[in-house]
Write a structure and sequence with these properties.
44% helix
């Protein structure tokens, strides 16, 4: 009886292995070829601001990883966001007080 159960288990394992070998492998599907820019607070708590703002090799790695997590193939550009990217995101009361000026966010453009 034990041999029969072991034999059935062995056939099950072999059958599962063959079915996995026959199935096509699936790739990660990237987003369409359009580009999208993400604004990330410089004080996000992960400490990636130094890498991204200096445009060093670690910045490229972090930016590519961010884009892959968002469903894009890779980062086309990254760095400190320009004022045009986020102007108007503050209320007039916040913008009027210089003490409340936030850190300039980081920008990662994903695509292609």
């Amino acid at each position: 009886m034990r041999r029969a159960v072991a034999l059935i288990g062995l056939f099950g394992i072999v059958g599962a292995g063959l079915s996995l070998a026959v199935l096509p492998t699936s790739k990660t599907v990237a987003a369409p070829s359009d580009q999208r820019t993400f604004l990330i607070p410089a004080s996000d708590g992960y400490g990636v601001a130094d890498c991204i703002s200096s445009k060093s090799e670690c910045g490229k790695i972090v930016a590519d990883a961010w884009c892959e997590a968002q469903g894009f193939a890779k980062a086309s550009s990254f760095g400190v966001a320009s004022r045009e990217d986020f102007t108007g995101s503050l209320s007039k009361a916040q913008a009027a007080t210089p003490a409340a000026a936030p850190e300039q966010p980081l920008a990662i453009t994903c695509g292609g």
